[in-house]
Amino acid sequence: MLLTREEEAILAGEHGEVPERMLRLLVRLGEIYKADKMIPVSSAQVAGVSYKSIGDPGLEFLEDIAGKGARVSVLTFLNPAGMDIESWKELGFPEDFVEKQLRIIEAFKKMGIVISATCTPYLSGNLPRFREHVAWSESSAVSFANSVLGARTNREGGPSALAAAILGRTPNYGFHLDENRKPDMHVAVNVELRTDADFGALGYFVGKIVKDRVPYFTGIKHAGVDSLKALGAAMAASGAVALYHAHGLTPEAKDYSPEGLDTISFGEKELTETYQNLNSGEEPDILILGCPHSSLNEIRTVAMLVEGKRLRKPMWVCTSRAVKELAIRMGYDEIIRSAGGKIVADTCTVVAPVEEMGFKTIAVNSGKAANYLPGFCKARVIFGDTEGLIRRVIE
User: Fold this and answer.
1) What are the mean pLDDT values of the chain's consecutive 10-residue runs (395 residues total)?
2) Collapsing DSSP states into helix, strand and coil, what is residue 89?
3) What domains lie within the chain, and their CATH numbers?
4) Local structure of 32: helix, strand or coil
């Protein structure tokens, strides 16, 4: 790799121990992927936040580098934590878990990282422009940034995203380069997708087949931001898709054609079978929506569906703290509370210790959550669309 004089000085330890360690990590990463140089990034998004995910070794690492003066040099947002940072007691999070989680949050805060605690940074103030280089790590956020926004990021690991945040640069490889953004698989959609859960089912099906390739979708007649969010999140979970193109819907799709690519089809049969494959439970202990975190429009929809009704099961609507504040201002939080549900900020069903809280069967509208819950939380899953799931838990 060609390094600048400043980068060579950092590697020589002239800027301190932490920058040297961080750059050494990025240089090794760049060498593995044959990067030619480092490039500047305008923002970062750091995963590896929940104590459930990183445990004591992760906590010790973060406290160590924060104590040695590590500070981020670009706008850096944080992925969801393992609990609602403000309402954890009301929600029943275990106190020993809380103590460790708060120490993790404090270490990140000390480094100057925005305690956004969300997997949808683009809904909360970290919105990169078209072709802007960033270093994001949460899989669904990476997919959204690359595909829907047309920004450029690889699927960073927590440590490499943190290193990029501190140094303001990342190796120039992968999806930062034009040649790697071309599609290499065609997905022909031959069924009408009516709900965001249908988009999640499509994403789950496609991700398992294409793995880490770049799919090009045709046949999707309409998709809003929330639908595209659900599609990308599920593909990133069941496979490792970090970029997709959808004809007439995503900004780079016009630059490419599916002609000559291998084609897979997704029709009514595949949609039905995917729902069947994702369902393993019968009666939910809890309904958890918002994986990725709910937008204000999704929360508004939930409020309209439960207004004047009463839930017979707990319901969490997970979102960012920023979006929850808007939901409170609009009265949606009060409506959902009156029905017996809760808007939960800072966390989600995958990284929260739900299994320790007694939830064994979880109803979700997310293909991503349906994919992860059996392994991460040892939970049975009821997968369906938002309206149908809410009907199941109304008295």
Assistant:
1) 96 96 97 98 97 96 97 98 96 96 98 98 97 97 98 96 98 98 98 98 98 97 97 97 98 97 98 97 96 98 98 98 98 98 96 93 97 93 98 94
2) helix
3) 5-178 (3.30.499.10), 182-276 (no CATH), 279-392 (3.30.499.10)
4) helix
